[in-house]
Amino acid sequence: MAPTRKHESVALRSDLPFIDELLPDFDVESCRQIDVAAAAETVYATARRLDMSSSWIIRSLFRLRGMPRSALNAEGLARIRFKPLLEDPPRGFVLGLVGQFWTPSGRLLDFEPREFPDLNVPGFAKAIWSFEITSLSPNTASLRTVTRVSCGDPMSRRSFMRYWTVIGPFSSLIRARMLRSVKRSAEGSHNRGAT
Q1: Domains, the chain, ranges and CATH?
Q2: Cα separation of 113 and 119, whole Å?
Q3: Does residue 164 register a pLDDT over 60?
């Protein structure tokens, strides 16, 4: 049976073609976007330094999921096995993760980023989290995040879809808050640089 696709948004085409090279077939895709009053380079740099620790909602959701507080920033995400898959400054970057996200521990696997596109581990799922920056003017950019998940087999797909039914809205909330945090920080950096 072919996987069904569940989407949170109607705009499915990514502006970064390498997302389709990394994970062309997926079971879930979720997109969020925000416009930022800052240059694309500033938005990219701010997103790359990702720090979600200022949001009590994100801190609480991470705690409920059993994720360490150190995972609230880019370095911490790398320590829990979010791997940088691709970088295209200032257009964007993609992080990848492989695990059994529906289990209490997440059973996150270590992997070589170059192997990610062909990686298919039965009983596990792989996910990408992209950050796409589009310059709208010299001082305005759009930041879009896309999350895609592909399950390795029908059993992991069923397990993941049950998990996503409950967790999906909270995942979307985390990404919405993260976008607002990047916007605030990038606009603050841009305004400080303009004075």
Answers
A1: 6-194 (3.30.530.20)
A2: 10
A3: yes
